[in-house]
Input
Amino acid sequence: MKFFNIDMHISVIADMKSIFQTLGHEVDDISLSDHTWVFGRQKGSIPLLNNGNWMRLSSEQMSEVFYETYKNDLDKYDAFIVTYPPAFAFLYKHFNKPIIINIPIRYEWPFTFRSEEWKKLNDYLIQGYDSGKIILIANNITDKIYAESFLGREITYIPSLCDYFPEKYTGIKDEVIYYAKSRIDELSDTGISYKQDVLVNHSYSDLLERKAIVHIPYTCSYMSIFEQYSANMPLLVPDIDFLLELYQKNLAFSEISFIKMYGAPPRSNQLPINTQFDPNNYADMSIIRALAEGSDFYSHEWMPHVHQFSSYEHLQEQVNNLDFADISMQMKNDSMDRTQKIHQMWDAILRKISND
Output
């Protein structure tokens, strides 16, 4: 099959493209991301969507103008891929072809604060799902739970693989670094370096020379964790209780909700199906815990070798005592099985589409 994609994020589609090509399919994509340089590519151009225009368009503008402009050019494709943002599914509304939506973020963006448009998105996705035209996937459990809360349809979970970089972990430098939205005072005297202080303009192999990476997560799922796990890089994250403690101090999960990011009241602009569970009620710690539990890095099935720490002191103990070379070897030993499982999941989806 031959697929087409337009995307604002470079990594999600890069992962799918790599997998689909391995399975014998073609993927053409235009990336509007500012990070195309990571893959040695040029940023693409779609005038309708350029310069942030896509964030201001209505669903009708996305679907009507795009179709009239590109209906002849895109007729040669068998199906479409949508990742970031999922609302780009509107671009292909008038093409009578399957649309795979792989959700890597809270699915309603950029309609979070436009209630009528969010409802139109819900109606469109539900109608497309029920007709078999739209295939809903999520690359993490949290976004599966989140989208199901509003759509009332089961979303298939397929984790990202992100093994497209050939470089693998070496750990030749006796240094541990941490990723966080800003420097953390409690880590200033631990010997664990803030990533932005030691690695700014760097190659991927420079990153993989570090002994381990600590993540203070800003959300439930982001592509660098998938990439690093597939590169056999030892990873450490706060356990759920400590993560929630950091969340309450505004040190973690700052982007778990677009509502929270923009300082709006803690509620969705569309009612979830279960009104007792509003995933945008960021003031309710039970809801934040439920979302946190779906994070990639807590998955015993897909990321069993991520180590968790319960405090900064516990982190220091782990940095001093863990055998990171052995952890990396365990990750390497499991990688083939992990890769095979993810490929099989995608192959089942693609076989179904091609047979329908």
Q: What stands out?
A: Residues 220 and 292 are 6 Å apart (CA to CA). The mean pLDDT is 95.
